[in-house]
Amino acid sequence: MGQKIFLSGALVDESEAKVSVFDHGYLYGDGVFEGIRSYGGKVFRFDDHLERLFASARAISLEIPMTAEELKKATYETMEANGVSDGYIRMVVSRGAGDLGLDPRKCTGNATVVIIAASIQLYPEELYRNGLEIVTGATVQSHPEALNPGIKSCNYLNNILAKIEGINAGVQEVLMLNHLGYVAECTGDNIFAVTDGAVMTPPPEAGILRGITRDVVMSICAGDGIECVERNLTRLDLYAADEVFLTGTAAEIIAVVKIDGRTIGGGKPGPVTNRLLEEFRKKTKEG
Ligand code: PMP
């Protein structure tokens, strides 16, 4: 017996957790998803994740056949069925089975809802102590008037193209610029720079996913009297910064110590990054 997966209304064994090859999620990446963490049995920022899921679904005219409360209940049931307390939860809502055309109206049944509760795969602890090396990808983030990166859609191929560049370069994350050449985000994380004690991160208009961890970091800054501004950043701003760090549900907060071969600041995680990580981890314990 494998793990239990929530699939459109029921918990089934993973060997039975199958989706139609006619599901437009499979055929076209037509769907939305969330990556969520639970700490000590409690889902972190659950309302924020669900709000973003419903916003993404609205943006692609996808009706989620469950309420937020029902999704919450199903998530906790899935966690319990798998004995997951500190874990990573993947929630996917795809268009459902249709024909081979693009027309979503042909997907006449309900959207497919999948919830997987897995154990978390973090970057190795030494990367938190030593920091991460990244490179800038040649693949730019999608134009906001194409598939807006603010929509957490199942179509991650653009990010995967950048990720492949990182694999070829032997690094774990890749910086993506936007169509204007400004810094957008990484393939699965938001990016921040710290210069003279002030924290900066690209604005939503730069074409980014508005990360839940990004929001938590911005609110920690506000509460701790650390200046934090959203503004367009160039690669030069990153190269010249005292500190650079990434934020994401899986990674939490992780320092970047090298970008495109340039050492950032002192070449190790800086004091602002470390302080924010400490405060962030406090929040995950508070729930
Ligand atoms: N950008 C992208 C492209 C992502 O996939 C993620 C991970 N969901 C993030 C940023 C970080 O968002 P969050 O903090 O909500 O995990």
What does this 3D model show about the protein?
By secondary structure, the chain is an alpha+beta fold. It folds into 2 domains: 4-118, 2-Layer Sandwich (D-amino Acid Aminotransferase, Chain A, domain 1), CATH 3.30.470; 125-286, Alpha-Beta Barrel (D-amino Acid Aminotransferase, Chain A, domain 2). It contains 8 helices and 15 strands. The protein has helices at residues 24-28, 46-59, 68-81, 125-130, 157-169, 212-224, 235-239, 271-286, and strands at 4-7, 10-13, 31-39, 42-43, 87-94, 112-119, 132-136, 173-177, 183-186, 190-195, 198-201, 228-230, 243-248, 252-259, 262-263. A hairpin with a 2-residue loop joins β1 (4-7) and β2. The longest helix has 16 residues, at 271-286. The protein starts with a strand and ends with a helix. The model has no long low-confidence stretch (mean pLDDT 97). 4'-deoxy-4'-aminopyridoxal-5'-phosphate is lined by residues 35, 159, 185, 188-190, 209, 211-214, 247-249.
